[in-house]
Amino acid sequence: STQSTGILLLAMGWSDVFISPSDLPNNAYGFIQLMFLLAIYGAILAYSATILTEGSELLLLVPATAGIVGSVVLPVLGAVPDGAIVLFSGMGSDAQEQLTVGIGAMAGSTVLLLTIPWAVTIIAGRVNLDDEGEPVGYKNKAGNRLTPPGSCNMWLTGVEVGKSVRRNGVLMAISAIAYVIIQGSAFQDCYKDDDSGCESSQEKWYAIIAMIYAIICFTGYLAISVHMSKDEATEGQREKMVKRLYKEIEEGRLTISHVIKRGVLAERGRVDSQETQQLSQVGSTSQDSIDAKLHKNKDLTKILKMFFKRYDKDGDKVCDKHLLPVLLSDLGEDMTPEDHNDLLNKMDTNHDGQVTFEEFKTQIINFLKDRDEETIKHEMTRLATGSCVDDIEGKDSYGAASGDAEEEDEEEEPEIPPSWNSLPAEEKERRIKRRAYWLMAGGLALIMIFSDPMVDVLSEVGSRIHVGTFYVSFVLAPLASNSSEVFAAYVYGSKKTRTGTTTACETLVGAAIMNNTFVLFVFLILIIAKDLKWEFTAETLSILLIEIIMIYYTQKKNQRMFDAVVILSLYPLALGFVALLENVADLN
Questions:
Q1: Nearest alpha carbon to residue 234 among 485, 439, 509, 436
Q2: Which of 127, 255, 387, 534 is 20 to 30 Å apart from 42, CA to CA?
Q3: How many whole angstroms separate alpha carbon 339 and alpha carbon 172?
């Protein structure tokens, strides 16, 4: 099997770069060497998956791609290591035997993703629930959402997941039908230990139909995810976008004019830069429509409200008129005294010295949406050169840092060099994209190089310890290819927010869909191209069992600690189920 990797490296003269596991001494010392190779290849594949994730997460900082990172980019790239292991397991001369490694990796990855990280998300993200199972802990500030701290009450602690998880659960159910299609032929003659009556030609048409169905589901899932990201956006990514824009305005790297004019907010009916550039060419009806969209924009309202609350001393959505110049400065707007007076008079319509939030929002949008391009460019240049005034006389304590009162928690953003923050927005975005693409390309290259020798090592380990290769691959392969998902689930869950748990679970279901479509597609290509048999009845039924159970949990809005324990137990249950079917029901 290492010959296929050798082909990739032949151009560099490295065809014999990898040690063949079968050439190692067949004794204790040779087994130690074998396990050392397993650890090295596994570490490299885990590192590859990590830098793939890091590269894709950088795209969260790019407005045009932020909405599809969680539901498309991360799951697709997360499936690449499993797809590569499946591909190389069927490339050698003993493909029928080596495919056991591929099915083990695919089944192990799918089961692991839907069980251990999911349970970790619930455990790490648990907050207090009431007697009806509703999460009351989210109403408290960060740090007080689980009382007493460390409580593990099975029924009164848990999490809430958003509707995007329920949507992905339905899509997972649809995509799982591909397994049923390919399994249909196997149930004729190819599911028993004695499968002498099984011919691969009988399965080819089933495999072709299943392959077509898998690729339709794959492209359909991507299309739905992209559409949803444009239409309503993923809940978690939408929150991240709002927080990031708020932070950039707060730190003086963006102005509210730029946000309004460029329309970088991802939401239904958003106004993008193309629409803005066409304003002068369209009629009044289109202009009125765009104005209406701006005023109804929920994300823009959130950002304005977060700044307004800094000066809303009593929390009654009313602000003192004399504090508005400071508030406008916080929004990055450099206005003349005449502009200030004109805008304040429009806001304070009844001349009582008080301005409501709705008055503030309406007039600030009406005033700033008409600012010309030169004024905005001047504002962005002023911010980029650091010439904006950060400290304004009259800014007192209650206007300093209370704007995040309605935020659930601060999300950690991917790290970028600090020097990039002072760059103009376009240049900063260009560098972020370049770094993201380099990281993803490097991760993919390492995966393609080291997946093949990893397959050979897994197969040899099974042979030497006299355990089925499937079981070895089921347990060990996902540790290399999916370890980052387990860690990410803990990180997202530990934020103890709806956004965090939703993002984690949505990504995990998306990854399972990728295994049902992309990885299975690769598997079926091998079955068809190399005229192989589908001899994986027990393994397939195990995948379907776990997915059916988890489809139920994807539709469950509130999930308790008890649910985490049940979900965690599904991982060993899947292995036991395969062993039962193979050894008792003879489905091997």
A1: 509
A2: 534
A3: 55
Phi-psi region at 126: left, alpha or beta (left = phi > 0; alpha = psi -120 to 50): beta
Q: Shortest CA distance to 237 belongs to which of 493, 489, 421, 61?
A: 61
- Residue 388: per-residue pLDDT: 38
> What count of other Cβ atoms lies within 10 Å of the Cβ of residue 393?
6
CA distances from 424 to 241, 303, 412, 420, 541 (A): 18, 21, 22, 9, 54
Which residue, 369, 407, 403, is CA-closest to 263?
369
- 210, 181 in Cβ contact below 8 A? yes
pLDDT tens-digit readout, 264-279: 343 334 434 343 343 3
Q: Classify the C-alpha dihedral 361-364-370-373 as positive or negative.
A: negative
* Matching residue, tokens 């504090």: 323
Q: Which amino acid is at 412?
A: E
- The one-letter code for the residue type at 47 is Y
| Confidence bin at 156 (pLDDT 50/70/90) | very high
DSSP helix/strand/coil, 431: helix
Contact status, residue 489 vs residue 118, Cβ threshold 8 Å: yes
Q: Tell me how far apart the alpha carbons of residues 245 and 515 are, in angstroms, rounded to a whole number.
A: 34
Q: Are 41 and 19 in contact (CB under 8 A)?
A: no
State the Cα–Cα distance between residues 184 and 190, nearest whole angstrom.
Answer: 10
| DSSP 3-state percent helix, strand, coil across the chain (nearest 5) | 70, 5, 25
Q: If you average pLDDT over residues 496-503, what whole number do you get? A: 86
Q: DSSP letter at 396? A: -
Tell me if 431 sits within 8 A of 423, measured CB to CB: yes
Angle 519-192-174 from CA coordinates, rounded to 5°: 35
Strand partners, 258: none
| pLDDT for residue 569 | 96
The DSSP code for 20 is P
Residue-wise pLDDT tens digits, 306-360:
888 888 777 777 888 777 778 878 887 777 777 777 877 777 777 777 888 888 8
The structure tokens listed for 271 are 């106004």
pLDDT of 529 > 70? The answer is yes
Q: Which residue has the tokens 């030609």?
A: 201
For CA atoms 173, 179, 182, 187, the dihedral sign is negative
Listed in sequence order, the residues at least 6 apart from 546 whose beta carbon sits closer than 8 Å to its beta carbon are 110, 111, 114, 115, 570, 573, 574
Q: Exposed (0-12), middle (13-18) or buried (19+): which is 125, by Cβ within 10 Å? A: buried
CA distance readout (Å), 513 to 113, 223, 547, 548, 587: 11, 13, 10, 13, 25
Selection from 331, 342, 338 nearest residue 389 by Cα: 331
pLDDT exceeds cutoff 80 at 97:
no
DSSP secondary structure letters along 173-209 = HHHTHHHHHHHHHHHHHSSSS--TT--HHHHHHHHHH
Tell me the whole-structure pTM to 2 decimals: 0.67
Residues contacting 279, CB < 8 A, separation 6+: 286, 287, 290
